[in-house]
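Researcher: I'd like a structural prediction for the single chain below. Treat it as a standalone chain; there are no partners to consider.
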Amino acid sequence: MKLPRTTLILILLALGLGGFVYFHEIRGATVREEIKEQKQKIFSFGEDDVQSLTVKTKKLTLNLERNPESSSKPKWLIKSPISGPANDAIVSYLMDLLVKGNSDAYGGKLRTLSTPAKQLGEFALDPPQATINITLKNRQSHQLSLGKSNFNGRLLYAQADPAAKPDGNINVLLVSTDFANAVNRELSEWEQPVDNSQKLPGLSTPLPTPTNSK
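Model: Treating it as a single chain, here is the predicted structure.
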């Protein structure tokens, strides 16, 4: 049966409208959600993209580099202030925060404060309490500066790749206090722990000599 021209036009319009709704509302919403999630992360690089880290606190400046022997352990090496293998678990904890951490520990929402540069000292960001400099394999660099805790002590003020906006203000982020726990460590904590279970041969403790009783 031949459909009237008007009916055919209405069917084509309905199909076109359905396609528009799918690509704009459904597919578009998925893409927007992915972009939103990416934007809410502090940084967009992955763990395997990182070549070196420099952690600077009030007590210590530590330089870490990825082990060039990718199949060997440890994955990370301390280059200064001493030279030796690093504690992979400690470095991985910090790396996980840098790669997966959101700017706001509550709900992963992006929370920033637009602040005049002269007021950074109020957040303990001028100078910062600690800085983490990240160098990627492609030679790009990033920086995270950590300040003091907020009013309830549940978050830290921070700056990611500090740069002034056109209005002269600087964005201050709120990040998890886990960052402070990750960087405020003694040098010995960054070093690879000694495995006391592996005893050297021939160094076993001698048994006491029995005493003959009469």
